[in-house]
Amino acid sequence: MAVLAYSLGKREINHHFTIKNAKLISLVVVILLLVFHTALRYYGGGDSCERLLSTGRYLGENVWQPYGCMMHKYKSIEAKTCLAEKRVAFVGDSRIRQLFYAFIKIIDPEQRGDGNKVDFLWYPEANNSMKERLISWTHVSINWSIKLHSGSSETLQQYKVNLTAIAVHLEKLADHGEVYWVVQEPVNEQVLSENRKMITNKQLELYNDAAVDVLNSSKRNSRSRVKLLAASRQASLETITQSDDGLHLPESTRNVGAMVLMNSLCNKLLRPIDGSCCQTLPPPNLLQKLSACFFVGSAVVFLIFHVLGNNHHRRPGPPDVESLEEKKPATAAAPLGPKAPFQALCRMGIIMSYFYLCDRADVFMKEQKFYTHSTFFIPLIYIFVLGVFYNENSKETKLLNREQTDEWKGWMQLVILIYHISGASAFIPVYMHVRVLVAAYLFQTGYGHFSFFWLKGDFGLYRVCQVLFRLNFLVLVLCVVMDRPYQFYYFVPLVTFWFVVIYSTMAMWPQILQKKANGSGLWHLGVLAKLLGLLLFICIFAFSQGFFERIFSIWPISTLFELNGSIHEWWFRWKLDRFAVIHGMLFAFIYLVLQKRQVLSEGKGEALFSPKISNLLIFLSVVSFITYSIWASSCKTKAECNEMHPYISVVQMLSFILIRNIPGYARSIYSSFFAWFGKISLELFICQYHIWLAADTKGILVLIPGNPSLNIMVSTFIFVCVAHEISLITNDLAQMVIPKDSVALLKRLGAVGLLSLVVQTLFSHMQNFLS
Fold first, then answer.
1. Which listed site, 181, 204, 440, 736, has its alpha carbon 20 to 30 Å from 49?
2. How many domains does the structure of the chain reveal?
3. A cellular component term (GO) from this record (predicted)?
């Protein structure tokens, strides 16, 4: 009965909630969110700079999150660069002096001057002395006014009068710099000393209201040039109980105020990628404008075709990138009509508009990541429960069959997504386990492509172009639309490089295929010799960084591998998983040979090996998992762990394969939930950069402000729908752009190469002209 209910429930869900309906819902949600955020920006009042100064919350101990934007944590060298030409003065009482010291500590942790001009001036009251100082160039304390005059109402009125007089000079100062008024933080009345008992939070609120009224009244029908710094007050509401004397703030709160000030002063100048507060985004460059025109033109052509005649076409089933094997339809698919490419480009243009709005336009908000064990492990448990719920019988029971490899890629990709959004890279044990998952994807790359070439022997140009197009189409479009170098999306260059290496290894003379190897076992030695040569090639590059850099710094390939003018990132990524692909190729070779010799038992319900060998291998696999986890937990630094990773990651991958495939019942089922995500794993990995994460993966996209849980659910829903649609678009365009006829394909490749050269040359000349 339980099984029947489970089956019926799953069928009902799949019947009513199709991917097409989900995409329509996501489109409507995006439009509504766009209207909401536009209205919030222009009618809600306040930009990211005002939100930085006024509101926020603690994500965890000592981690402050401004409302709707990201706050950069400034280092000493950055602060010195920003303030090199500035004169900074703090005017006020002992609380302002604390803020002054916290600010100085950012500039110089050892509090040496080093030429930066930052002063503190003792003016505990808003009176004529302060006014005279402000007249000569121009802040104010409330606590001393309350303390000296016992909180009388007359003093409050006099304070308003004095502040009104001072406000004029503050405004004049703001004409030539930036002036901040620090809103007074609350006190802990219970621990105040006797001579401070008259300072109450009620009194402080009255004085704060007075200051806000006076400074706001000086707007003169325009935005006030004196900025109110209220973020430290917001932070102190949670931390004032930690104050030793009830008046002075704990260090964590002082640091919040100082860092908020630093972000307000420096973000617009230094433009840190993880500091979105107070930053105005640059206008689109020439390539971005041209890409917009291209997509708009495609949409216009599509509409013209649509009006003239509705040409239906059937989309071919998307092949797997690793093998490019398509599921044959029951009937032959009708040829794609002339409007099909423009329809695909129109859909792609709409999606790219969403990418741009999320991460290049100041429309949606962004927030910082903050790691806690619960933010990583709770979603992890949740998705694995879903994965178990959606399980089905496999069509094949072979080792690493298609459904199983899709499942493997799917759950790995979901773990990596959770890892990225939770900021779990800060926790070394999780970081090391995720490194194994990345290596496992490269392992599958080696396994899948080797198997295809070994069994099919198809080394034609059509297949090569199909694989390269499917791997790189989305990334190349994003490079233009998002103005990012190719190497920024590091995983695609990595997989592309290794595909070319695998192809070259297998295609070079002598081409050794299974058909040829069946005739003589000596050909197996030839394959091993090729793999040994590839291993030597890898080792030469790995142990000679200078040689590696010289090779990949040669134009024009340097443009593919450089990031910020250096190939260091490419060297790091390549070296980290340098053996994963050859491990996959070797495993595929051994498996296919054993399969051909019928050494393995791959029937339904049968264990791969004899009971004794199966039990021993499973036991060793479990022990290796536990041993690796213990080792990863004992690592002190990432650098230390990364040195060992290339050599030991293969043990984890083999252990997983054995545990997953030795028992016959385990090979007979798979998770359709994970397999579905596995089919779009590459799109998920790339799309997360801009429409799930934000600020080029440094932060989190905020579509629903004020509700992190709901925001994650909504943004994830849209993100998955977009990734799936891009997968379909890529499949459509691959069928249309890459013809099977070799002559036509060569002509198109020549045209694309020539066009790329012309565009690159024109763009370089224009950049030189503008500079």
1. 204
2. 4
3. Golgi membrane
Residues 6 or more apart whose CB falls under 8 angstroms from that of 193 comprise 245, 246
pLDDT at 564: 82
Q: What is the pLDDT of residues 135-146, one digit of tens each?
A: 444 344 445 455
Q: Please check whether residue 590 is in contact with residue 659, taking contact to mean a CB–CB distance below 8 angstroms.
A: no
∠ CA 639-73-274, nearest 5°, is 85
Say whether both 527 and 484 belong to one domain.
yes
Catalytic positions = 94, 245, 248
CA angle in degrees (0–180, nearest 5) for 270-179-144:
130
Residue 226 and residue 171 in contact, taking contact as beta carbons nearer than 8 Å: yes
Confidence of residue 195 (pLDDT cuts 50, 70, 90): confident
Residue 512's pLDDT is 83
Scan for tokens 């599958």, then name that residue.
444
User: Which of 270, 302, 329 represents a domain boundary (last residue)?
Assistant: 270
Instruction: Tabulate helix, strand, coil % of the chain (nearest 5).
Output: 65, 5, 30
- Residue 490 domain-assigned? yes
Q: Are residues 716 and 766 in the same domain?
A: no
pLDDT in tens, 390-434: 999 999 889 999 999 999 999 999 999 999 999 999 899 999 999
Q: Which domain holds residue 125?
A: 52-270
Q: Which of 242, 270, 298 is the last residue of a domain?
A: 270
Same structural domain, 125 and 258: yes
Tokens read off for 148: 């000296």
612 and 719 share a domain?
yes
Verify that 239 and 194 share a domain, yes or no.
yes
Asked, as a colleague might, if the bond just before 556 is cis with ω within 30 of 0, I would say yes
Same domain, 344 and 453: yes
The verdict on 68 and 217 lying in the same domain is: yes
DSSP H or E run through 319: none
What confidence category does residue 365 fall into, taking pLDDT thresholds of 50, 70 and 90? Answer: very high
Residue 65 lies in a domain: yes
H or E segment to which residue 636 belongs:
none
Does residue 727 surpass a pLDDT of 90?
yes
Angle of helix 340-359 relative to helix 681-691, nearest 10 degrees, comes to 40
